[in-house]
């Protein structure tokens, strides 16, 4: 009995001591909001920037971009060193770091699962599998990995499952940690094309794909610094630090004259990554509540300050005094991106290469007042786009001028009348050359920013006698319709994920229809130019081809380029280390949260 009482007393003492023990530091939580809903988290199936922001932190490519280097610089991530290309740029050999593991998941049956070269072979093959319906198959087809296209065509023609076990000369694991890629033609930029985008080309384990099957979009499992803990579709995503993430430390090489970059390096160098414990992402599509969530300190970061609030955030390009007093910081760049109107080249009204159809698209372009769009809808936060090629990429020249940005209603009317788009019945609206009604239909989204842009375009087209109506749906639904060719016109933005112009021009490449080529434009002369520039090293000859591609884009107008947006981000004083990436989506692991500066509830 006495022994029992002593034991009970000791237990009570232990409980009391535990209750009095100081709690550990609160978790570091990064909170912000996406302005558009995500679609899912399988790298082979997604294209939107918001889903790709999540996958970029869950999966890991072979290489990554230095977080501070400007101009950009590639560094090994899961690779042990930079790749070893052959002299003709047709064979690339990459050696992986041993000891990198996937995050724990039931798909692995309770075992630790090491990353091996075969995982990249499998992951890359998934883009060719017809059953996956990857919108990025065209990128792999461009690369010309030996045997990959034939393997895909074998599955298509035979109507059989894709043979993942089939050996390929162009995509092989030479041993457990050595990957080799071989291409049909020279591919000097293959490292940028297939090896440096964790959001798309990070390693996926075959066991995970087979375990989750059709639900793979909701179960991303990679080797990256974060794991997905919960997901409420189009509402909230919560990610936490990957508890099994390897030892990796903050390293960067900012330019010697980059004062901001040098200061960040001095503060963060050597810190173990990731520095935050948790990331909570809401989806707030309307501008005002997203702005207020930041101003009220509910969010730590505001990505892309809404145009409505730019004068309150950074008037004349400088942080507003009232925000500066609170320690809020602002970041502003012309983004490596563009907004555009996509024309469906297979649509009977606006599509096709007949002179009258080209004239209609060019007349629509001339009717659109991009300057007024920038002034009224974007509050000055954009510059006119002159071609598909975006700032900060090869072939972009700020001084380049084309008629894509011209606003000339008189010329638009003259073009329409020359090609038979006339108002025959006097109702104020033009008919098609054969007398059939002419109705333009543009897919759009149900948010205020889209409505403002739609109203301006409707007025612009009305001024030249063109009737425009709208089909409203959520962004993911519109993307699905466009990829299937079930649309006439759509407004969309696109961001570069590498410092090369070729991906932007892929939007006009015939074999990329159903993938990056949303317009379904297919022209033999352009396809030849595109394929030639793939094989050339950077230099004057390749730049000349890029310029010719820009000329063809302006002539046939499968896309009406609108603007390159000026991107403004804001961060709270307790968010440490943020710098907007230029060509990649992963940055959460490079920032810290100082909870001592965060307002306490």
Helix/strand layout:
Layout (H helix, E strand, L loop, with lengths): L1 H19 L8 E6 L14 H10 L4 E3 L8 E3 L7 E2 L5 E5 L21 H10 L10 H7 L4 H11 L12 E5 L2 E5 L7 H5 L3 H4 L4 H7 L13 E7 L3 E6 L17 H10 L9 E6 L3 H9 L5 E2 L7 H4 L7 H5 L3 E6 L2 E7 L11 H13 L2 H8 L4 E3 L24 H10 L20 E6 L3 H15 L4 E6 L2 H9 L5 E7 L6 H4 L18 H12 L4 H17 L2 E3 L1 E9 L3 E2 L15 E2 L8
Parallel strand pairs: 1-10, 15-16, 15-17
Antiparallel strand pairs: 2-3, 4-5, 5-7, 6-7, 8-9, 9-10, 11-19, 12-19, 13-17, 13-18, 14-19, 20-21
Helix pairs in contact: 13-15, 19-20
Notes on the structure:
The protein has 601 residues and is of the alpha+beta class. It is built from 20 helices and 21 strands. Strands 16-15-17-13-18 form a five-stranded mixed sheet. A four-stranded mixed sheet has the order 1-10-9-8, covered by helices on one side. It has a four-stranded antiparallel sheet with strand order 4-5-7-6, covered by helices on one side. A hairpin with a 3-residue loop joins strand 8 (226-232) and strand 9. Helix 19 (524-535) runs antiparallel to helix 20 (540-556). The longest helix has 19 residues, at 2-20. The chain is globular, with a radius of gyration of 26 Å.
